[in-house]
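Need residues for this backbone.
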């Protein structure tokens, strides 16, 4: 078999894997919109996706892992948003929270699903995963800023600052999603910036 044929076979296999994963995730989301997460069974997901049980377990251990898999797309989105806003911000330390509006817009786009997950058995899983994604993104930018400023006298460590910024973001987002008449994503992003930028300025301003 030629190398070209091997590549075609591998690409076809990859596309099938991605298609199966998308079908399963879409089926899970449709179930979440209809009933409590904790009452959803793997079999219900399989029936909606028209996928066999053995195929499901080739990709995921359980429905929790399937739910978490959806955050891979979010991570790519936020990385792109962070890179795109880097040159548009006034102060270099503002880049640390450059992801914020894109994240709020994403949450608003999927607000029906997000509201269904809040208060369900999946809320802890979702919060943990969002915290992990944001901590990786924010922590990298925080480390860069600390290297630039080199303020040895600061009582705030990079780890503590990262935790504060991410935890505050998740708290604001949860409050916003639960609001009866939530503000537009752009406005809540501005509110988050107003809350945390004074903190960043106190640490990183010369």
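Answer:
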């Amino acid at each position: 078999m030629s190398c070209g044929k091997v590549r075609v076979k591998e690409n076809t296999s990859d596309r099938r894997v991605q298609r199966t994963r998308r079908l399963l995730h879409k089926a899970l989301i449709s179930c979440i919109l209809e009933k409590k997460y904790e009452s959803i069974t793997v079999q219900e997901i399989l029936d909606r996706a028209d996928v066999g049980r053995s195929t499901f377990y080739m990709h995921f251990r359980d429905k929790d892992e399937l739910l978490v898999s959806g955050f891979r797309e979010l991570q790519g989105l936020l990385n792109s948003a962070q890179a795109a806003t880097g040159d548009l911000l006034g102060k270099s330390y503002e880049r640390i929270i450059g992801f914020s509006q894109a994240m709020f817009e994403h949450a608003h786009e999927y607000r029906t699903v997000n509201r269904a997950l809040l208060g369900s058995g999946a809320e802890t899983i979702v919060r943990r995963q969002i915290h992990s994604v944001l901590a990786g993104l924010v922590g990298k930018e925080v480390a860069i800023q600390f290297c630039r400023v080199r303020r040895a006298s600061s009582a705030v460590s990079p780890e503590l600052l990262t935790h504060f910024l991410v935890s505050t973001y998740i708290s604001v987002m949860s409050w916003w999603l639960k609001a009866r008449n939530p503000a537009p994503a752009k406005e809540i992003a501005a509110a988050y910036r107003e809350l945390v930028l004074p903190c960043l300025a106190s640490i990183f301003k010369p």
